[in-house]
């Protein structure tokens, strides 16, 4: 049985580890270590290899939930983790200085993978910083000639994460 | 002998922006250009110096005040000192130069968004770094097959390194941080305790990674001229010494 | 369900952000029908009193520096409760107006509505604003489907297992906001799945998707 994965990516602090923990059937395996750069202003630890959670279907099929490290210097891990991936969930932290730039960076770096599969976007912390708005994100994507389902989510909220995953499944239904 | 020595970004509080300037000082081509890292903003390496192994008694290899260096307005300051060949090398092919210009440039800090995460919070005195450097040199002397030893942060930023070959130290630091974290996770999932080493046994050499403390790790790269036991033992002792120095 | 189009093209950036923030709050109410649109036609256009140019809108709501007794005015600074109350009243008025018999010259507007029997293909141009879809999973699913490929109503109905009329309603909702592109493609059997994809065939894919949804209680 082929291993099937969903990949969570996005900048450090966007909620990838939390989102996986929210829906995984066991506490996710994480590779978090202390942050030693400016990221430490936001959070004490950062993922340097991957997060791994899992869902097991009734027929025994296991679905891997993999979170990538956020920083671009770990791109080698991104390329490893997407192998066998079924789709990408991009989480963007609205508090970051340039969230559009973040979004563009992940969409560009995962473009080949997205081309083969699909992607949905979850914007986190929009309740803390309300600009840019979801509409602004869509304007930005439209300028890039892209349409991705995008939602404001709270990575700690299981319904929100499942909503994203469900939308990704719908994308896969037609892709 | 040609050895590249990297001074730590943490020491400066940021990474080198004038890589081109510093690489001009090198006689060997360096493979600093990243492979498959896209437009990796983190590929710039800290000031890289081509030199013979610096005389450990050259107590003031660089006239830098680390506190001043953390100020954004600090201007580039350079100082050139003469250093002498010191270490023993196993591979004669690697031996190249003796007295080499030892030069270090202090980069201006980058405050733009893309480099934001480059600003390391760890900060060591030049004395701590100088003593750490001696430990790295000692490691290289004791392990005849060793051709690289790196101190880096556990989240993948190189701090101080000594290499005899052109190897992409930034990439190795980053990848080994992932590898060590994975090793520690696998140990935990296997109901085993402290992960002491992550060992890559290759056809012509070995790469051993181990923790120094909560935020630093050591990577030892060696040919098969050093046996594994020796590499592990010396690596562990070096890490122990560094833990005391860099506590 | 009819979406009502609210325009704010003449306002300053801070006021635009303020109004958008209000609308995000209002959209928590599933009965809220308004959405901010970028271009005409507008059901309501919110303008500063200095705007004197001709505006194309059903109703013009004017912002004034002090409270005015004139109808369709709101004083600055704009307050969420005032705007919401005004929108509810405007919605009521518009609904009543639309229930009145339409004069013959307005018949073409009705003809533009997508009929459930339509055989056209519909494709989403841009992901809809949150106020349009809310957290309604059926609407989100339909929007997602036609964001990926142009589909007929019957294809949408088959995938989502929803009545044709519901699919037409969602398409009309999106079309009302100017987000739908109508494509007259040749009819051919619906095929899904990319060559070389992860699934050997459509049934395996559907089985997998259903399995994940069942597991997650979706």
UniProtKB/TrEMBL annotation, chain A:
Pfam families: ATP_bind_1. It comes from the Bacteria. GO terms for molecular function: GTP binding; hydrolase activity. SUPFAM superfamilies: P-loop containing nucleoside triphosphate hydrolases. The keyword rRNA processing does not apply. CDD domains: Ras_like_GTPase (cd00882). Keywords: GTP-binding, Hydrolase, Nucleotide-binding. Belongs to the GPN-loop GTPase family. This is Small GTP-binding protein.
Automatic annotation (TrEMBL), chain B:
It comes from the Bacteria. Residues 16-28 have a biased composition (Polar residues). Residues 14-36 are annotated as: Disordered. This is Roadblock/LAMTOR2 domain-containing protein. It comes from Candidatus Competibacter denitrificans Run_A_D11.
TrEMBL record, chain C:
This is Uncharacterized protein. It comes from Candidatus Competibacter denitrificans Run_A_D11.
